[in-house]
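Now read the record:
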Amino acid sequence: MSLREASARWQSIIKRQKTGFTLLEVMISLAIVGGLLITLLYTLSYNLGITERQFTVTNITNLAKEKIEEMEENPQENRGRFPEPYDTLNYETKVKDSPFNGMSEIIVVVGNEKESITLSELVRKQK
């Protein structure tokens, strides 16, 4: 067999082979893409949950600071709910004696079913 005949034979074999992807190759690539999508969705869901929790904690902390400021002027024990749009949050205020002379400790607890923040501050006793 001459070189020319061998070359022609290989060219005819190559032409007869069908080009494209096999079913196995397509299924493997779909499995890889599916795994990546599942990982992406899980990560997105996890990060959204963290963001929501931090938003709630920030709101609760800010409301607790406002209650502390109110308590500085008029320290008294109280409990209740915040007005709209924070009506799902409740608060409790306490006043107790401090170990330091002439000082009282005011305590504010703000929260909901999932999260709560406790802040305390020392103030001069009112006479």
